[in-house]
Amino acid sequence: RRSDWHSVPLSEIDFSRCRRCSPSYRALPRDYPNPPCSERSKEEAAVLNDVWVSLPVGSEESYTFRHMRKNNEEETLFRCEDMRFEIDMCIDSNATTLQRLVKIYDELQFLSDKEPVTKGSLLIAKKFPEGVGAGGKLFQYTLDGRVLGVIHKHAIRRIYGDDGQEMLDLCYKNPAVAIPIVVNRLRQKDKEFRAAREVLNRKWKEISELNYYKSIDHRGLTWRATDKRATSTRVLVADIKDRAENDGIEGEAALSVRLEKAKEEHGVFYEVTMKDAMKRQMNLKRLPKPTNTLFTPHLSLIYDQNSWAQQDAYRIISFALERSSMNPADKERCYKLWRDFIGPWFELSLSWMQSPAASFTPSPPQEGDTTDNGEDSADEEGSTSEENNVADGKFVKEEILKPTATSEDSNYFSATSHIAYPPDTLVSTAFGEGKIVNYHEKDSEYEVSYPCGSQRVLPDAIFCTLSPVEPSLLTDQLRTNDSEVTERADDHLIIGTQYLYLFFRLHQVLVRRLNIAKDISSRVCKNTELRRHIDRLTYEGDPNEGTIRYEAFLSLVYSLVETGTGLNEEPEGAKFEDRVRYLLGNDSYELATMDKLISHILKHLQHMANDETLQNMVEIYRRHKLAGSFKPSAFREEAALMSEGENMYAFQICNVPKVDQKILYFEYLGCIAEDIEDDEDTERDYNKRGLDDVALEEAEQISKRPRRGA
Fold it and tell me: Alpha-carbon distance 473 to 471, whole Å?
């Protein structure tokens, strides 16, 4: 039956054989009945559609379809918009109903004025107290049921609440009495609604101005979770191993997983707009190539603006290391690792890294120092050291009298308590690196030998001691046998453990984010629309505004590190995120997780400082660097002997000519100790087979020698 069609949903109708006018529009079956429609004019019938229906053909019909998520600020704006829409609809429906009933009300007033007031009409009014039409015998007014629509009836019910339906019935039974009352009520409510909207509009304007700029930040909503996953040890190690299996290209399985994560973060349309961009590979044609015998490479990372970005990264890491809860021994190992390896690797000079120590100024001595019991120290001058340490069975602090600083003696360290460094000790001084020749105790000065000559320096000018490069006969022998060197003399090469790989990956992320902060700082100054939403730090048109904003960002990072080096809970990180947003805008969403990134870098730096295998690799690196060149095959052979069966990674960093860039190549080598062991087993078998022949030759030579006394 044709009537049965109305109970069948569109999802159960087979449209495969129906006509098609577009990818998503199909015609209804020919025997499908047209839905009933009354009072349709010719013009409406000419343009309205009763045949074609829209069918979902893409992922929007599946349960996995997801629009872009809304943040809290956007939800607030949507709620304000919903409330604004509701009150507008309420006012409009009330005004429409009032407009419809005012005409009837005017007509009733006209009829009442035309009807004569007679004796008969008064009798009729008494006989029929509920009224007849317009209240007279000449005219009887009835309300047509089609005059009030659904919207009008709903408006009347809304203003009368529970008595709304009764008032509607009275409008039909006795319109002459009920409609004037309803019209007056509608006019009263119209004034109240409009006055309430004016008050609410001021409130909604404040809410919109407060939440608008943060509502358009869609990346910041999911960035913390995304960054936590992207910088985790498991993901970073799986990335390099997957690339190693696919000759340096990201595998299809890993790419599909990354695409699904991106769809969850950005919505389904990301697959259409950005899918091809995710497959792009770095173009290495115009970049310096790594050593072919050691590198494929599996991964390549760029350090942009390397000169200043590396320095800022070192300042942040060293400041976080100083403020961290790491024990002093590990801190010293980390600083030593920076001096011996990481600093030279990124071409950071030791004199620059120790420039804060060179500019250190001691604070003036304080007067009036007292002991714990509050008595003046002058009372204790004649006591012995034992009496100072123990008095009446109680321990008190010993006061050390410091010599008054004069123009002739401005040393921070006391000359009497200074322990001299032995000769031939490598030291770093305010004038560069050198070797101690002798210590003149009388003058309290060191004689230090520099490449340009010797000079006397004060103990204050010596910052730290340097560990010398330990010579190795194995390194010398392997370098002698290997004739291959790196193509460029300024390239650096090292083979390290997984901790070094993780450190380099996260360190590159830190440098990249500093570049992002510097770039955004210069761009927001030129964006006139954005300036309304960010903090104003200087006058408009200041050429140094970009530098000021970047320095302000670094100050925020230092403040965050000072409060806990990323160990705080979420509220502190949220405050930092808001401050960065008001400083640099919404494009700075990647900078919101600087606290977590720095804490991860410190963790891997501590692991590196305590890893004996990596320390052996660093010593090999220093020996090759001291020799003036890196020989890849010799480096790998010696690293295999020292690797102790661990999975190893090869790294080579190259300077990009004519630009301030460096490129770092990664290679996953796996366990390279097995290859060396196989070669050693083969050589051992060969030597074992020839051992008997060598023994026979030596026995023959001994028998031919003349005996003594013969």
Answer: 7
